[in-house]
Amino acid sequence: MKTLAALFLLILSASAHGTNLLERTAILALKTAKASTTGTTNEHGGMLIERSSKLIEFVEPTPEGNPTSVTVIDKKQLHWGDRIVGTYHVHLCMAGYYHQYFSVQDVVVAIFSGVPEFMLDECTGDVHEFDPKVDHIHDTGIDGHIVGPHCELLIRHIPEGRIIGNINETEPEHAGPTVDNNVGDCP
C-alpha cells in the first residue's frame, strides 16, 4: 500500500496524467510496478480498491515470475469493507508481443469484474484504460493473431482502449517469448 502522501504528491504533480482519483491511482500503481526489481522482465499488476468509501489504494498480488501474465485479482488480500474499483498491469516491451493492446484475458477480467482495467505499455509509457461500462471491444484496436488453448491460430479483436496518461518513461524493445503472442506452451 502506498501512503496518502505519495498519492497526494501524484495528484498535485503538474503532469497531465489521469482526470480523476481512480486514473491517477492507476498511473501511480503502474509506475510503482514498473519500478520494481522485476518490473521490466515480468508482468506486474493488481487491484485498485476503494477503502473507507473515499480512499483508493492499490494492492499487488505476488507476481508469478511470468513475462506475459499476472494475477490481478486476489480477493484474499481485501479487508472488510474494501471494494474493487479497477485492476492494473504492465505489458513489457517485447518484440513480437501486442504490448499496446489489451489481451483477450485482460478484456475477460474487465467484463467479469465489471471494473476498468488499466495497462501500461512499457514501450511508449502510455497508460491505457478499458472500461467495460464505457468502452466497446471493437471501438479501438486490431484483429490480432492469437494462439488458442490447443495451439491453433485464432484471429481475435484486441482493443487498445483509451490512453489516459503517460508515465514519461520508456523501455527499449527486447526479445520476447520464443513464440508468438500468448502462445503458452505450444511447440
Write up this protein.
The chain is α+β, with helices and mostly antiparallel strands. The chain has one domain: Cytidine Deaminase, domain 2. About 20% of the residues lie in helices and about 25% in strands. The chain contains three helices and eight strands, in the order ααβββαβββββ. The strands form two sheets. The chain has a six-stranded mixed β-sheet with strand order 2-1-3-4-5-8, sandwiched between helices. It is globular.
Salient structural properties:
single chain, about 190 residues, alpha+beta, Cytidine Deaminase, domain 2, two-stranded antiparallel ribbon, about 20% helix
Write the SSE topology.
Elements: H1 4-12, H2 21-35, E1 45-51, E2 55-59, E3 83-91, H3 104-113, E4 117-121, E5 126-130, E6 142-147, E7 153-158, E8 162-166
Parallel strand pairs: 3-4
Antiparallel strand pairs: 1-2, 1-3, 4-5, 5-8, 6-7
The gist of it:
By secondary structure, the chain is of the alpha+beta class.
Helix vs. strand class: alpha+beta
Order of helices and strands: HHEEEHEEEEE
- The fold-level CATH name is Cytidine Deaminase, domain 2
Radius of gyration based on Cα positions: 16 Å
Unreliably modeled segments: 1-16, 179-183
- First CA to last CA: what distance? 40 Å
The shape, in one word, is globular
SS summary, helix count: 3
Largest sheet: 6 strands, mixed
Mean pLDDT: 86
